[in-house]
Amino acid sequence: MKQLFTILFILILGNSLFAQEQKLFVSREVDEMAVFPGCENLDVSDKKALTNCMSKQLSAKLINELGGLEEALSQSGVYDAKALIQFVVSKEGIIIGIEQMSGGNLILGDAASLAMEKISMELPPIRPARLDDGTPVNLVFQLPVRFKIEEETEESIANGAFPVDEIVLFTLLTENKRLRYEVRWFKNKDLKVYEISNNQSNFLGKFLTLNELENSEPYKSLIDKARTENKILVADGFLDKEFFEIYIHNLFDSTRQKPIFVEVVEVKDEKIQSVFTFQTEADFNDSKFVSLIYRD
């Protein structure tokens, strides 16, 4: 099943770093291209050659990081899967803002994004791109990734890992809690936001990335508030005539020192009692509580 914790962590942490940059450039806007380690012998003005060199260097590193995945998948029939990873080479010479773009294979995008996170922490400084006056700038790259995926999972991947089109990623609450905004993952591609009031759902809009959502109010203010807390509501509802709330803990911990886990609490007679904790997404996805994040 889809790795819910990992998806959320990459979406939130990666886009938070990405959004901190004041200005982003693409290759046609810079005078000198960023120079990736191993590409130092190329002319800084030869953008195409430097881009190809960076792609080759990163692809080789990704192959090494994804080798275990390939071995696991090759035990059965396989097919080609594609994903597109976007990242920023900052003006300080580090890779930030790693995210998978919509339209690709979600599982491959997940694995490649995590691998890129690891690679970025092990790389020596990259010579940043520069404007014609020598000013270093933040440069956006997109890296296509292809990989082998189990043939038997092709249908489930194409249609979504869950038995519904939409799942709730997290829920933003206004200060008085009279309004809530459900942020949902739609068919493994887009983010959708619904306003929930008086048990009625009102579709507000669709977003391609969390970064796009974060730049829109009132979501930006509510997400900023959620970053200061150690847990965030995912969803709630009745199961077997009992009312439960699902929370993810430490999702917004930028230090990554605290483990991410899911807590299920029961609300009864205005009293709240913790009843289950799940340390992995597999355990949560195999529980009865996963149905509370499904949306038709």
In short:
This protein is an alpha+beta fold. It has helices at 4-20, 47-65, 67-73, 106-122, 154-159, 210-214, 219-227, 281-285; strands at residues 24-25, 78-89, 95-100, 129-130, 136-150, 166-173, 180-186, 190-197, 200-207, 231-239, 242-249, 261-268, 271-278, 294-295. The protein folds into two domains: 4-157, no CATH class; 162-295, no CATH class.
Protein model, in words:
The structure is a single chain. The protein contains 8 helices and 14 strands. The chain is an alpha+beta fold and 296 residues long. The strands form 3 sheets. Strands 1, 2, 3, 4 and 5 form a 5-stranded mixed β-sheet that branches. Strands 9-8-7-6-14 form a 5-stranded antiparallel β-sheet. It is elongated, with a radius of gyration of 21 Å.
Features:
single chain, five-stranded mixed beta sheet, alpha+beta, five-stranded antiparallel beta sheet, 2 domains, 296 residues
| Terminal residue distance | 18 Å
3D shape: elongated
| Integer count of domains | 2
Largest pleated sheet: 5 strands, mixed
Radius of gyration: 21 Å
State which percent range the strand residues make up: 25-35%
Helix content: 25-40%
Low-confidence runs? 9-21, 72-79, 149-160
What average pLDDT do the residues reach? 79
Write down the oligomeric state.
single chain
Q: Assign the structural class, choosing from mainly alpha, mainly beta, alpha/beta, alpha+beta, or little secondary structure.
A: alpha+beta
Query: How many individual β-strands?
Result: 14
Q: What's the helix-strand series?
A: HEHHEEHEEHEEEEHHEEEEHE
